[in-house]
Q: What sequence folds into this?
């Protein structure tokens, strides 16, 4: 018990130090990944052919993929994926996130967590997303394996890729993918969305979104 209290106090002190270290843009540089949706593959295609998405940069860097079933807009970063999806069909479309897979740069499959699932419930069955006919949804997605309980007791996530620039640079041109099943009228269509890390940069920031992760890493947490 005493050890636990000491750990929490130490965590609080270090967290304060991290907070104070980045009070102006000139004092802190963080790593940002430029990730593009470069290919989409439908498992139902006889020849497994790839289809190329197109860029949409009206308000942020997003990528559009569209076919007869749906229109989707994607943005990706070290923090996960944001998806807006429009059901073009006259039937309800269902996505079972428990059957979705994130394939990392080493081609290791990991579970996918949707924004409607609490981090603490990451290992429990998730509620499927249902998109009404001609309807639309917005989702944020992340890797189940990158969610953990911090030394502070808070459930949080760690970045999908390294945030130390010297290591992050080696990830340029690597690819990851999301394999997502879409169910319509009892029939499942499986899509593979392939993302390429186009560039890695250091950018100035007034805050660091990975403060808790950096704190836990400093404390020796084994990820």
A:
């Amino acid at each position: 018990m005493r050890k636990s209290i000491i750990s929490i106090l130490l965590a609080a002190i270090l967290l304060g130090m991290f907070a104070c270290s980045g009070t102006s843009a000139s004092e802190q540089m963080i790593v940002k990944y430029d990730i593009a949706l470069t290919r989409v593959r439908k498992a139902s295609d006889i020849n497994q052919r790839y289809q190329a998405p197109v860029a949409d940069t009206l308000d942020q860097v997003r990528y559009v993929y569209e076919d007869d079933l749906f229109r989707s807009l994607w943005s990706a970063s070290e923090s996960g994926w944001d998806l807006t999806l429009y059901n073009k069909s006259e039937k309800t479309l269902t996505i079972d996130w428990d059957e979705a897979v994130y394939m990392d740069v080493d081609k290791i499959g990991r579970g996918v967590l949707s924004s409607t699932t609490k981090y603490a419930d990451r290992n429990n069955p998730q509620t499927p997303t249902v998109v009404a006919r001609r309807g639309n949804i917005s989702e944020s997605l992340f890797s189940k394996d990158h969610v953990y309980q911090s030394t502070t007791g808070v459930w949080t996530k760690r970045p999908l890729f390294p945030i130390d620039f010297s290591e992050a640079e080696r990830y340029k041109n690597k690819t990851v993918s999301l394999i997502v099943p879409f169910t319509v009228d009892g029939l499942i269509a499986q899509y593979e969305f392939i993302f390429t890390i186009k560039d890695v940069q250091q950018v100035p920031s007034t805050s660091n979104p990975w403060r808790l992760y950096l704190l836990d890493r400093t404390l020796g947490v084994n990820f």
